C-alpha cells in the first residue's frame, strides 16, 4: 500500500483572475495527523474545498489512494472514504443527538432519509449510533435535542455524524474554532481517538492544538506553500514567524488566527 494516501500536484484555483490557491503540491502520509495552517486568507479552506471536490481546480492533479480524483464529484469522493467536516457546525437542532447520528448512518448505507418509516425500522441503527456517540463522549446526551448542546458538544456530534460515513481519511475544518479551553481539550482528545486507524487532515488556528496533535504541518500563505515539516521545524522558520506574527522572534504554542 502506498505510503501517501493523498497527494496533489500543482493544485491551483483562480476566481476571475484572483489566484486563491497557487501551485500547491503536498502529500499526506497514511495514518498521520497532518495540519494545514496559515494566516487569514491563506487559502486553507479553498484547499479543503478542492480536495473534497466542492470546487474544481483550475489546474493540477489530486490523487487519493493512488486514484486520480481531480474530476470526481463530492459524493463520489465521500464514497471512496474521503470525508470532511465543516467550519460551521451543521446539525439538526430539532432532532435528538441520537437521531442526528442515525440519519447519517441511514445515508452511509445508501438509503434515503426515511423519516416516515416506523420508529421500529429506524431503531436498527441505534446500536451503531450509540457506539459512535460513545466514541465522541456524548452517550449521556443521546436523547437531548441537539440544539441544547454546548457549541463544543455540537462539534463533537458533527464529528460523530462524519464518522458514521466510515471515512478512511477525515478532513476537519477548524474543529476547535470558538471553543472554551475545556471544549478544546475535549476535541483534542477526541481527534486523537478517532485518528486511530485513520488519516486526518485538519485546518486549525490554535497552534497549541497543532503542536499537540499533528505529525506534519503544511503552512500556506497567499495561496502558496510557505513551509512544511514537524512543529519544531515549522515554528522556527523565519518566514512562518513573519507570516503569523510580523517581527516576533518565535511562534510559541499559543493561538494564532489562521
Structure, described:
A 6-stranded mixed β-sheet has the order 7-8-9-4-10-11, sandwiched between helices. Strands 1, 2, 3, 5 and 6 form a 5-stranded antiparallel β-sheet that branches. The chain contains 10 helices and 11 strands. It starts with a strand and ends in a 13-residue tail after the last helix. Mean pLDDT is 85; it is low at 247-258. With 258 residues, it is α/β, with parallel strands linked by helices. Helix 3 runs parallel beside helix 6 (151-163) and helix 5 packs across helix 6.
What is this structure's SSE topology?
Layout: E1 4-15, E2 18-24, E3 27-29, E4 33-37, H1 44-51, E5 59-64, E6 67-68, H2 74-79, E7 82-84, H3 97-108, H4 119-122, H5 126-135, H6 151-163, E8 169-173, H7 181-194, E9 199-203, H8 207-213, E10 216-221, E11 224-229, H9 231-235, H10 238-245
Parallel strand pairs: 4-9, 4-10, 7-8, 8-9
Antiparallel strand pairs: 1-2, 1-3, 1-5, 5-6, 10-11
Helix pairs in contact: 3-5, 3-6, 5-6, 6-7
Offer a few descriptive terms.
258 residues, alpha/beta, 6-stranded mixed beta sheet, 5-stranded antiparallel beta sheet, 10 helices, 11 strands, disordered C terminus
Amino acid at each position: 500500500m502506498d505510503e501517501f494516501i493523498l497527494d496533489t500536484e500543482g493544485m491551483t484555483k483562480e476566481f476571475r483572475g484572483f489566484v486563491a490557491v497557487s501551485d500547491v503540491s503536498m502529500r499526506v502520509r497514511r495514518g498521520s495527523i497532518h495540519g494545514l495552517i496559515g494566516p487569514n486568507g491563506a487559502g486553507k479552506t479553498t484547499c479543503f474545498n478542492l480536495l473534497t471536490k466542492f470546487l474544481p481546480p483550475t489546474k493540477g492533479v489530486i490523487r487519493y489512494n493512488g486514484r486520480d480524483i481531480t474530476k470526481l464529484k463530492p459524493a463520489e469522493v465521500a464514497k471512496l472514504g474521503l470525508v470532511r467536516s465543516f467550519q460551521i457546525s451543521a446539525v439538526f437542532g430539532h432532532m435528538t443527538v441520537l437521531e442526528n447520528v442515525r440519519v447519517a448512518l441511514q445515508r452511509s448505507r445508501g438509503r434515503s432519509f426515511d423519516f416516515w418509516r416506523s420508529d421500529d425500522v429506524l431503531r436498527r441503527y441505534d446500536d451503531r449510533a450509540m457506539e459512535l456517540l460513545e466514541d465522541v463522549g456524548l452517550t449521556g446526551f443521546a436523547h437531548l435535542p441537539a440544539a441544547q448542546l454546548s457549541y463544543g458538544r455540537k462539534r463533537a456530534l458533527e464529528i460523530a455524524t462524519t464518522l458514521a460515513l466510515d471515512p478512511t481519511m477525515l478532513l476537519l475544518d477548524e474543529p476547535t474554532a470558538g471553543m472554551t479551553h475545556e471544549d478544546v481539550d475535549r476535541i483534542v482528545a477526541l481527534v486523537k481517538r478517532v485518528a486511530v486507524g485513520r488519516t486526518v487532515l485538519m485546518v486549525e488556528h490554535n497552534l497549541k492544538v497543532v503542536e499537540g496533535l499533528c505529525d506534519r504541518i503544511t503552512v500556506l500563505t497567499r495561496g502558496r506553500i510557505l513551509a512544511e515539516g514537524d512543529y519544531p521545524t515549522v515554528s522556527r522558520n523565519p518566514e512562518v514567524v513573519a507570516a503569523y506574527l510580523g517581527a516576533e522572534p518565535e511562534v510559541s504554542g499559543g493561538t494564532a488566527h489562521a
